[in-house]
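> call design_seq(struct)
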């Protein structure tokens, strides 16, 4: 048996799979994301990441004996900025990935200090709210007492690996997304960037996501119920693990992860540079990745359902009866700013075309369509970079019920494969753990269904997509003003 654990934005999951890829046990634990100020998003590593791992592990071990677990792999949200002392104990809550936009000033300063062209040449990316370095600078500037004690920096997955094994190690993919600390061409840390924003922090050693980097030590075994000595992999950021869970292994394979936020990742043979996307290392040596992400997806859907005082599933049924195009509504889904491809933390959401005949189901469907238009925008950016998706694989909670994936295929004109197992990154973790122990996982998780676009909807969605693209450009300055007035 192989144990995978994933720490998400709003929940954590554990999966135990056997060597054939069959699910033997699963567990899920919801948690909250703190937002102490507009644009700030944090997790308490002890209370959320570690407590979830312990609870989930003990839950699945009530079904599967610890002696049957041959290896453990952990993934999690990222890139994050968790600073800790020399023993790995957190000194403050972890600042989350690109949805946290507090470090705008530091982004500008670090870009100027290192040089915008140099940053892109060395990392493959420009500095945005996704970058870790500016957030470390923010901590140093605003919380000097914390920074004076900080000696280590972590993402979610490698901090948990440290709790399990005592090792200070991070995988190449997580490192490569933590701009500007990692040199993508050299596949190693970039010394100039460390000196500019993390000079007092120790650098973790690098490993590939599927490498065994340590064993469960005695204290962790006593807390989690795992057997001491169980091999632990380096793990990675959840998006990479989720892509692997769905069988995205070949060049051109592109995962669309429908979660609280939305993430895309495509395997490419060479580094891809585009100022509206993220370049990164791959899951294995010899591969690279190009990725994109939207700040609001499931979070936006839940928000609309809350306004209507209805359950998401019930509202989705009503929205399925609303015509394509939501009777002339377009939503800009920038309710938490936006990441790719516009990189605008001060963007704000809006509904365009409202009339008195529109009801909650119209608004709900238009939110799904707005996110789908954002997906199309990101795919166009990938095409501009020479990385047009060859195959789409849809995963995540948003695939349930089928409405959102149908809308996305209609808006983009692209089919999407749905794998048999959609539990997500935790299953990908279990698959990597099996690989590490010599198991052939090529037959895991075959495609169960394919969503095909309806060509009859293409002309309408082309028109609405034009409105979507033009509206942001026309409203950008006013959205920024509204952001300022709201304290964002």
């Amino acid at each position: 048996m192989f144990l995978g654990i994933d720490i998400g934005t709003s929940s954590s999951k554990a999966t135990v799979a056997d060597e054939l890829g069959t699910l033997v046990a699963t567990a899920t634990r919801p948690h909250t994301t703190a937002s102490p100020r507009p644009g700030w998003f944090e997790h308490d590593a002890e209370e959320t990441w570690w407590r979830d791992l312990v609870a989930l592990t003990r839950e699945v071990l009530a079904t599967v004996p610890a002696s049957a677990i041959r290896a453990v792999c952990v993934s999690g949200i990222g890139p994050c900025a968790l600073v800790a002392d020399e023993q790995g104990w957190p000194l403050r809550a972890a600042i989350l990935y690109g949805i946290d936009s507090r470090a705008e000033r530091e982004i500008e300063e670090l870009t100027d200090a290192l040089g915008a062209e140099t940053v892109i040449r060395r990392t493959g990316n420009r500095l945005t709210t996704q970058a870790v370095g500016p957030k470390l600078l923010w901590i140093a500037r605003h919380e000097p007492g914390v920074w004076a004690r900080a000696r280590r920096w972590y993402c979610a997955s490698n901090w948990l690996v440290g709790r399990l094994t005592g090792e200070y190690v991070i995988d190449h993919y997580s490192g490569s997304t933590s701009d500007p600390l990692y040199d993508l061409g050299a596949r190693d840390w970039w010394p100039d960037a460390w000196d500019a924003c993390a000079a007092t922090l120790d650098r973790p050693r690098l490993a590939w996501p599927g490498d065994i980097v340590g064993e469960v030590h005695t204290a962790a075994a006593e807390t989690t119920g795992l057997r001491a000595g169980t091999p632990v992999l380096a793990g990675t950021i959840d998006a990479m693990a989720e892509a692997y869970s769905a069988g995205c292994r070949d060049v051109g394979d592109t995962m669309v992860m429908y979660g609280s936020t939305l993430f895309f990742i495509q395997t490419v043979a060479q580094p891809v540079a585009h100022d509206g996307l993220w370049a990164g290392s791959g899951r294995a040596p010899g591969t690279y990745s190009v990725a994109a992400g939207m700040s609001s997806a499931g979070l936006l859907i839940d928000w609309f359902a809350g306004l209507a005082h209805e359950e998401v599933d019930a509202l989705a049924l009503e929205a399925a009866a609303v015509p394509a195009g939501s009777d002339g509504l377009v939503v800009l889904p920038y309710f938490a700013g936006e990441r790719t491809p516009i990189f605008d933390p001060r963007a704000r959401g809006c509904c365009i075309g409202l009339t008195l005949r529109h009801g909650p189901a119209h608004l709900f469907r238009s939110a799904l369509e707005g996110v789908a238009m954002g997906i199309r925008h990101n795919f166009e950016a990938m095409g501009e970079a020479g990385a047009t998706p060859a195959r789409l694989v849809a995963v995540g909670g948003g695939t349930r019920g089928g409405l959102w994936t149908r809308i996305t295929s209609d808006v983009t004109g692209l089919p999407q494969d749905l794998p048999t197992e959609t539990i997500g990154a935790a299953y990908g973790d279990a698959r990597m753990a099996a690989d590490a122990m010599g198991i052939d996982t090529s037959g895991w998780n075959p495609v169960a269904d394919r969503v095909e676009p309806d060509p009859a909807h293409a002309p309408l969605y082309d028109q609405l997509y034009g409105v979507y693209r033009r509206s942001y450009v026309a409203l950008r300055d006013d959205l920024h003003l509204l952001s300022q007035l709201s304290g964002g």
